[in-house]
Amino acid sequence: MRHALVQLLRCPRCRRGALRAEAPAPVLMFGPLRCPECRASYPVAEGVADLVLEHATAGGLQRGLESRWVARSYERYVRPALQRALLRRPLDTDSEYLLYRSLLGTPEGPVLDLGCGTGLVARRLAREPAFPLVVGQDVSPAMLEEGVAQAREAGATVDFLRAQAPALPFQDGTLGAVLMADSLHYLEDLGRLMLEVARVLRPGGRWVASTYAPPGSASGVLHRRVGLHPRGEATLRAAASAAGLVRFERVALPPLLVLKAEKGSAEVPR
Prior knowledge:
By secondary structure, this protein is of the alpha/beta class. It has helices at residues 3-6, 60-65, 68-72, 74-87, 93-104, 120-126, 141-154, 190-200, 217-225, 233-242, and strands spanning 20-21, 33-34, 41-42, 44-45, 48-50, 111-114, 134-138, 159-162, 175-180, 201-212, 245-253, 256-263. The chain has a nine-stranded mixed beta sheet, with helices on both faces. A hairpin with a 2-residue loop joins strand 11 and strand 12. The chain is globular, with a radius of gyration of 18 Å. The N and C termini lie far apart (36 Å).
């Protein structure tokens, strides 16, 4: 975990204090992060900060994604199988990445890969010349452990942290973009998520996400039971607008939906 990331973090407990390392260093591998406001302490191990407040028992599909076996086989077998099941005819990996990359534009600050899994997209972003700091956030320790190993093997500099969305442990207006590559449908509280995304983005910063359109009513019940929450374009557009995001656009390759919205500024009219 680089010092540049530590400077962006906000205490998830009191939601006021900026987190600090005990001993400032360019790279923090071990040792706690502390909040000067509420004195909360968060462990750091192998360069990954654990900012989860309370351990909650994972249910449904998320429980499987916390398995080490699933994490180790995620990119080669599990992710493609999930995409085939949910999207029927998913994009190939290169096409998917190019779509995300084009919608991200030129970020003017750090980029958060929210629900990063093993960091498949984060690694490619981090290896682009002159690209800003890339942060991968996930709640699964197994996914993050595999993500760290994969990034090291690929020679990609990605900073990983463990935190529970929809709350985002970043200070206001610090991120140039928030990417949710194939992870939006794992979050139930869409309204709170969008408010958090709008809070942490810099003016003009972009939110880019992919999901899939809701299936029929019978299948929809099954999806919710395993912890999936697909939404249609109208619902997603309304949630982005309610959070103050503007310039909502989408690419529809049914049932795949890829979305982009921006945080407004004086130069970006509503």
